[in-house]
Amino acid sequence: MNSLMEQLGFNVPIMLAPLGGGPGSPALAAAISAAGGLGSVGSAYFTPEQIREAGAAVRAVTRQPFALNLFAPQPWPQVGAAALQAAQAELAGYHRELGLPAPQLPDVPELDFAAQFRAVLDVRPAALSFTFGVLGAAELTALKNAGILSIGTCGSLEEARELHSSGVDALCVQGREAGGHRGSWLHDARQSTLDLTRAVAAGLPSPVIAAGGLMDASDVRAALAAGAQLAACGTAFLLADEAGTSPPYRAALSSGGDTLFTQAFSGKWARGLANRLTREVRSPLPFPWQNALTRALRSSATQQGRSEYLSLWAGEGVNRITAGPAAQLLARLWPADPEPGASSPNG
Ligand SMILES: Cc1cc2nc3c(=O)[nH]c(=O)nc-3n(C[C@H](O)[C@H](O)[C@H](O)COP(=O)(O)O)c2cc1C
After folding, report:
1. What pLDDT is recorded for position 134?
2. Ligand 1, atom 21: closest residue by C-alpha
């Protein structure tokens, strides 16, 4: 038991890392929480209504604590006409191949942080994690008053310090091995998970959650030994039966391969399996515009089973991925009877 587990009331030192865009479904979060970990719904792209529904869906399965996740609010960058034209021209050929009309941008970004945040307060999960930046004092106070633990995501000691000074309750430390988007906002930080965990745990008093490349029980023990209270595992659960991972994405994950950092799909650096788009896209718009511009392509490719056009987010450990019920995958990461000498959760 450590302070986070005691405060929130769960007993396996593993958090399901938030997996937005479908995989981190309420069903997966509920299965992890019911099995003793901290489930987490990948709710950052959800509408306020979907956030409320997700909370109800988890609670229909379990009364155990769970977390929601949002993207910290950030300024939307301006996009010039020439950049837009170049990005559209680059995607036009793929649209033709899939029988889609030419790529178009929506008039306004679709994420409304304030409305999502109100929905989070209504749901009152045990914790709210966020990535891509810091929350304001008003939001952190609202979370505290609602009894919701705040977890900020950082990719460097400098970002950890900024989150700590802002008043967050816990720090999710994301190493370079991690699948999906880099949470960093100050710079393009790429330290390894264990090195960064050690540095943040030694340098700051906040509880630390380690994320990035943690795929088996020895990885989890190493993260705890480095000073983390919890290991946050994402890729390890992408093939869970309860995950919302689409069939072509599942097939690509099962085949494995090399991962790399790309901006091709969203405009933000993210780690995933290499495919045709990561090789060919050269002029992405900044986030969130490229994400909006590639949305039709990605959803049509999912329906048509064409993984060469999909963002195949995965961490460096993807070649050690296994499929099965979430509770079984969790038990592999934290066996009920840990080997003699295994480190116990810190705190
Ligand atoms: C498919 C996928 C989606 C992700 N979506 C989010 C997200 O919406 N919000 C977030 O904070 N992190 C997101 N991440 C990052 C994870 O929460 C976590 O940092 C990462 O999975 C840890 O590394 P691992 O995949 O090697 O376990 C995502 C990662 C993946 C693989």
Report:
1. 98
2. 234
Determine the distance separating the centroid of ligand 1 and the alpha carbon of 36, expressed in angstroms: 20
**Cβ count within 10 A of residue 317:** 21
- In the reported structure, the alpha carbon of residue 80 is separated from the centroid of ligand 1 by a whole-number distance in angstroms of 30
CATH 3.20.20.70 fits 3-333, yes or no: yes
Q: What is the whole-number distance in angstroms between the Cα of residue 344 and the centre of ligand 1?
A: 25
Q: What does the mean pLDDT of the chain come to? A: 95
Task: Give the DSSP letter string of 1-30.
Answer: --HHHHHHT--SSEEE---TTTTS-HHHHH
Beta strand pairing status for 180-181 and 270-273?
Answer: antiparallel
In tens, the pLDDT along 175-215 reads: 999 999 999 999 888 999 999 999 999 999 999 999 999 99
Condensed to tens digits (0 to 9), the pLDDT of residues 37-94 reads 999 999 999 999 999 999 999 999 999 999 999 999 988 899 999 999 999 999 999 9
Q: What mean pLDDT comes out for the span 159-171? A: 98
DSSP code per residue over 86-152: HHHHHHHHHHHHTTPPPP---SS-S--HHHHHHHHHHH--SEEEEESS---HHHHHHHHHTT-EEEE
Residue 167 to residues 139, 176, 220, Cα–Cα distance (Å): 11, 25, 27
CB of 313 closer than 6 angstroms to any ligand 1 atom: yes
Count of helix runs (H) and strand runs (E) in the chain: 14, 11
